[in-house]
Amino acid sequence: MVSAWEGSAMFIEVESNPNCESSLFARFKEVEAARRVVQIKSFERRAEGEWCWVTGWSDDPGQACCPAYVQRVEDSGAGLTHLIFGGIWGIRLKPVALAEDWSLESKNQWGEPYLSLADARDIKYADEEQR
């Protein structure tokens, strides 16, 4: 399980794994309910940002992809932020222009334990019509 709820506290746990080397156990204060997310604007590779597909990543060898979520939380270091999280192995990203299946072997894709985004305009939710 990636997150557990205890009152208004949210816990994220990501094991060290082939998707992302960093392990993580972090606590955040939830501000809003989590929603499914399908795209985010990532600033990891380009300063101007790039739109990317995002999926959760699990330890299931038969079905590694799982839902990714965004939740507005209070982070002691960043104030209010949009936390992007997924499976026990974190999240995986690929540019929207890339037409390939999700794969740990792809050099065009990368994994993160989670991401924190300040601007809601950098998020496309699963329940909204895609632009």
Describe, in short, the structure shown.
The protein has 131 residues and is mainly beta.
Q: What key attributes describe this structure?
A:
131 residues, mainly beta, 12-stranded antiparallel sheet, globular
List the helices and strands and how they pair.
Blueprint lengths: L2 E4 L2 E6 L9 E7 L4 E8 L7 E8 L7 E2 L1 E8 L3 E7 L5 E5 L14 E3 L2 E3 L5 E3 L6
Antiparallel strand pairs: 1-2, 2-3, 3-7, 4-5, 4-7, 4-12, 5-6, 5-9, 7-8, 8-11, 9-10
**N- to C-terminal separation?**
31 Å
Provide the structure class: mainly beta
Q: Sheet bearing the most strands, described? A: 12 strands, antiparallel
Our count of helices gives 0
Structure, described:
The protein has 131 residues and is an all-beta fold. The chain has one domain (3-125). The chain is 0% helix and 49% strand. Strands 1, 2, 3, 4, 5, 6, 7, 8, 9, 10, 11 and 12 form a twelve-stranded antiparallel β-sheet that branches. The radius of gyration is 14 Å and the shape is globular. The protein starts with a strand and ends in a 6-residue tail after the last strand. The mean pLDDT is 89.
